[in-house]
Amino acid sequence: MQRRQTSTAWLFLAPFLITVAVFFFYAFARAAYYSVTDFNLFNTPRVIGLKPYADVLGDPSFRRALGNSLVFAVVTTTLQTVGALLMAVALNRRLRGLPFFRAAWYMPSITSSVVITLIFLWLFQRRGVANYLITQAQASAPLTLTFLLTLIGAQVVQVLLERRRALPAGWFDPALGVTSALLAVLVTAALAWTGVISAREVPPFDYQYFADKWITLGGVRVLSIPLLVVVIQNTFTTIPTLMLFFLAGLQNIPAALYEAAEIDGATPWQQLTRVTVPMLRPVTFYVITVGLIGTMQMFDQVAVIGSAAPGETLITLAYYVYANTFKAGAAPVNMASAAAILLAALILAMVAAQRRFFPSEAP
Amino acid sequence: MKKCLLLACALLATAHAQTTVKINGYGGTDPAVVGDLINRFVKPALAKDKITVVYEPLQGDYNKSLTTLLAAGTAGDVFYLPAETLDGFVATGKVMPLNGLVNTSPFIKSLNTAFTRNGRLYGVAKDFNTLTLVYNKDLFDEAGVKYPDNTDTWATLQTKLTTLKQKLGPDYAGICLQPNWDRFGAFAFATGWTQFDSKGKTNLADPRFAEAFNFYTGLARNKVGIQPSEVSEGWTGGCLKTGKVAVGIEGNWVVNFLRDNAPNLKFGTALMPKNTKTAKRGNFLYTVGWAINSGTKNRAAALKVLNILTSPQVQQYVLEQGLAIPSRTALTNNAYFKKTDPGAVNSRLVFDGADDGNVRAFTFGPQGTDWSKPINEALAAVLSGQKSAADALKKAQADMNAFQSR
């Protein structure tokens, strides 16, 4: 009986095991072997030692790809983890129409990244929506400023009046806020109507997002603007998936802990930092690990943007591996393999460091 | 029953005798063009030989797709071989040398050279393109400056462009400069500079290279020369389309583009300017050849197909249809070239450019397209004002050395 159960288990596991054996272990072993040979897709590989590794490390493109990948991984993982946590906390409350918001927020995650990249390329063109909105914001600055100043002024006056009548009014009281906003709209409209203020004439905002532009730190190129666009896009599309993990984690935190905290007089912020975040530690560990692996292997956005941005600004390790394998005719596949092995080692090291220094257990 | 069996056997035998030659080439409009050529010329000629010809276009990145097919042993018997990626494909050992198998004497010599490595010919030019100066007549008329012509040197062209810019003001530019080897290289060749020395190394510190580099990037000073991105375009043809840029350096492909995208633009064409010192022009030959797969099982049939596709009748048809500039020398006296419409004039000058001055094939050498990266980066850095020409050239040489020592 035991033997039969075991063989059934093997039978069910077989498809998965065969796939892993062929597409992971065999492929990995081949890549490791090619990385010490002179293989170029067409010749019979001959072992030449560690020269491909030396070539890869001496290649300025590889060093740029390494820098880009690391910066991208750290920035994107941080942004998406924090964003996903905040989003999960917000969507974990009992709100009207919650299922709608959960579904709506999940949409970017199920849309193809190629499609989203094309949309972002369109948004951030020189004559794209991003530049158009900035131009509009600059043009309508007098109106916006009038609205904001009136809003703040009205709110201050209202709150002070309420307090004089000994009523407990907060600075951000929503009911008073609506009244102030209405008043601000009326004042702005009246001033615009009488011609006292009007939209300015400004030249179109003309920023090139997909050009060789960099954010530098002490003269060192850290993050390119095109890569920053990809960071924004990636954060936008990954937050929903990671948010689901946090939501699942949040459901498992006993409500009693929050009740106790509330009785002790903890503010919502204190509840978040002292109860939610520590209790979510195992989920956070998982989310960061998945985030790091995903961002270190980022490829599709770079491939889709392609020559629309200068190569050096976007090249990542995964793209470097691809570009060195698929060329015209004979290709330095040995270098691509060496880079792939280095990428794998780097990811392993990052995950190991995370395990070592950031505990994955809830306190 | 017996009859049926005999009939089946006969059919099988016929099917067996039928040879299929598969051709790999570009996607886009090529399937229609090559399909037409096959129906008009190849099929009638091969009707008796029981050879079927099929065209299998490779969509997307042709070079990458062909590499994959060659590595897997499933590429066509005949395929397009772009001269710029010739070395990479020759290194695979999958391209058959054609010496002694085809007669190359009717073809333009520089085109045969483009497909020759170590005395072996790997392809027969299908058609080709060279670079010319394409200019916007209205802008020159408005500025009262003489059009660029075939006697222009770098110095006279620069004077014309600078005057035009001064007359027309900040909204206009003299010339569109792509920060790429694929346009700049023609200027480097004009000085007599060569891409590779006898050891296969590239010397960017050569004064002749620096002379061309300084001239090209120097045009960007005072905004006489601008990059396509400065007018929100991706290439020089796009610059011309805007009507704000007077000159573009392009090949014959720009004619159909302008016809479709800027039908009211009056353009003229002149040969590339001569280097002031050497009095020679520089130019690129952009060409795609017909090649045969060394692993083909239908060698004789493939050769027959190749010979038909490069025959005078096919080339005449290609030229008359305005599809490309064919590669046979005999076409010099073709009636089409005597026409005076802008398209025909452009074709004539593109054809003439193939053997005027220092003309070299557009190629990157055995290490592939990455060869041009250091040059492209240097051009981009100087044209956008981020680096001085001297600094950029220094870095480019260091990067080139690292690349070539791999």
Automatic annotation (TrEMBL), chain A:
> In terms of domain of life, where is this protein from?
Bacteria
Q: Where in the cell is it found?
A: Cell membrane
Question: Which stretches are annotated as coiled coil?
Answer: none
User: Where in the sequence is the signal peptide annotated?
Assistant: none
- Give TM segment ranges: 9-29, 70-91, 103-123, 143-161, 173-194, 239-258, 278-295, 302-322, 334-353
Q: What membrane topology does this protein have?
A: Multi-pass membrane protein
Keywords recorded for this protein, A-Z: Cell membrane, Membrane, Transmembrane, Transmembrane helix, Transport
| All residue ranges annotated as the ABC transmembrane type-1 domain in the record | 66-354
Regarding protein family, the annotation reads: Belongs to the binding-protein-dependent transport system permease family.
Annotated protein name in UniProt? ABC transporter permease
Organism encoding this protein:
Deinococcus radiotolerans
From TrEMBL, chain B:
Which keywords fit this entry according to its UniProt record?
Signal, Transport
- Identify the domain of life: Bacteria
Protein's cellular compartments: Cell envelope
- Where does it mainly reside? other
Its signal peptide is 1-17
Please report which protein family the annotation says this sequence is part of.
Belongs to the bacterial solute-binding protein 1 family.
Protein name in UniProt: ABC transporter substrate-binding protein
Organism field: Deinococcus radiotolerans
